[in-house]
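Is this the right way to post structure tokens for a design question? Let me know if I should format differently. Anyway, here goes:
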């Protein structure tokens, strides 16, 4: 099982980025994917997750209305579209997979390496 994030980078306040989480080694539609982030000096935060087979998603209040999670089953890839970015969104962003759609990271046994998102003013 492997997850590889990409799409991070430097963006100005108010800008947008789209992160990708390419997956392999498991039956894509059977699992849940979560997006987490960890800002400097802070604990890792669950920000969104999706039950792929049902296309149902949840969002943390901190990103609701600004971030959108989506999937492409043909590419076994999950995306996180981020808009209206602020400096508070600066963090390393991780995707993870597991059997439960939750913001609790212990339910996700497999993680990607992370991708850095930096929002400048």
């Amino acid at each position: 099982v492997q997850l590889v994030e990409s799409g991070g980078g430097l963006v100005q306040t108010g800008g947008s980025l789209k992160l990708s989480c390419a997956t392999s080694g498991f039956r894509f539609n059977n699992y849940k994917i979560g997006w987490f982030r960890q800002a400097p000096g802070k604990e890792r935060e669950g920000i969104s997750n999706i039950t792929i087979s049902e296309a149902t998603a949840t969002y943390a209040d901190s990103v609701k209305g600004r971030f959108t999670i989506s999937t492409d089953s043909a590419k076994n890839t999950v995306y996180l579209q981020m808009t209206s970015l602020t400096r508070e969104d600066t963090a390393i962003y991780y995707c993870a997979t597991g059997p439960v759609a939750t913001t609790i990271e212990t339910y996700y046994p497999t993680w990607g390496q992370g991708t850095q998102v930096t929002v400048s003013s």
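Format looks fine. Someone answered above. Worth noting: The mean pLDDT is 95. The longest strand covers residues 17-24.
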